[in-house]
Amino acid sequence: MEKLLEQFSLGLFFWMLVIFVALIFLLKKFAWKPILDAVNEREEGIKNALLSAENAKKEMQNLKSDNEKLLAEARLERDTMMKEAREIKEKMINDAKTEAQTAGQKMIEQAKASIESEKNAALAELKAQVSTLSLDIAEKLLKDELSNKEAQTKLVEKMLGDVKLN
Q1: Count of C-beta atoms within a 10 Å radius of residue 33
Q2: Rounded CA gap, 100 and 86, in Å?
């Protein structure tokens, strides 16, 4: 250490100090500002990148929640559509059953009406045949009874007697 103190020179120290101050001044004037600007720009770039990343993260969370909402709405809409489809199916089945029952009832009523009309027609025809047969029988009886003159006179007198009594 003594050697260092022995070699110390005030002139050398002065010139070193002047050169050091000049170097600092030159660095401050020409290099320090661009270096600080570059460092500040780098810092701003990093801040912007972090903000962008944070915004992107928030945006992704929003999109995820929106997607979940849309998915839930789609499921709800699907369930509603399925319920409506089931209700429409059941209504169509019930309508078809009702329509089939109505058609069956109409067919039964038409069959009954047809049977009734055929029955009436058969009865009318039977009455007509019975009346024709009755007239034929009466005609034959009358021919037999009225074949001689004496029987005719007795029949006419009998009928006149019946008429007088009524």
Answers
A1: 11
A2: 21
CA distance 118 to 35: 120
The structure tokens 């019930």 sit at 94
Q: Mean pLDDT in each 10-residue stretch from start to end of the chain (166 residues)?
A: 65 93 88 87 94 94 93 94 95 93 93 92 89 82 73 78 68
Segment 96-121, tens digit of pLDDT: 999 999 999 999 999 999 999 999 99
Question: H/E/C letters for each residue in 144-158?
Answer: HHCCCHHHHHHHHHH
Calpha distance 79→87 (Å, rounded): 12
Whole-model pTM: value is: 0.39
